[in-house]
């Protein structure tokens, strides 16, 4: 969870606590238990979404690493295969093997 979001959640929790402590004073001002509960539910959903987002971010990082490893493997194998074909066949035949290189 980002520092900004974490700070916002802490401030919201403090606000909810303060609102509940002074509920009787605030009821005639339009702030009732229903509104406080709505704020608390929104805060809890936000925390849940942030946790899910962090998990997805970690999964994406792992998948990105896996993709990079595979791309490096593809590059290495491609280079190896091209070298074999280029050593054993004339340049005019390279295209038959899918090699479009000029050198």
Question: Can you give a write-up of this model?
Answer:
The protein is mostly helical and 103 residues long. It has one domain (3-97). Helix content is 77%, strand content 0%.
| Structural class estimated from helices and strands | mainly alpha
- As a percent range, the share of helical residues equals over 70%
Order of helices and strands: HHH
Largest sheet: none
Rounded average pLDDT:
95
Q: Radius of gyration from the CA trace?
A: 30 Å
Count of DSSP-assigned helices = 3
Number of strands: 0
Q: Alpha-carbon distance between the termini? A: 51 Å
Coarse shape: rod-shaped
Summed up, the domain count is 1
Q: Strand share of the residues? A: under 5%
Sequence stretches where pLDDT stays below 50 over 5 or more residues: none
Quickly describe the structure:
The protein has 103 residues and is an all-alpha fold. It has helices spanning 3-21, 23-26, 33-88. Helix 1 (3-21) packs antiparallel against helix 3 (33-88).
For the structure shown, list the relevant keywords.
103 residues, mainly alpha, 3 helices, 0% strand, rod-shaped
Give the helix/strand layout.
Blueprint: H1 3-21, H2 23-26, H3 33-88
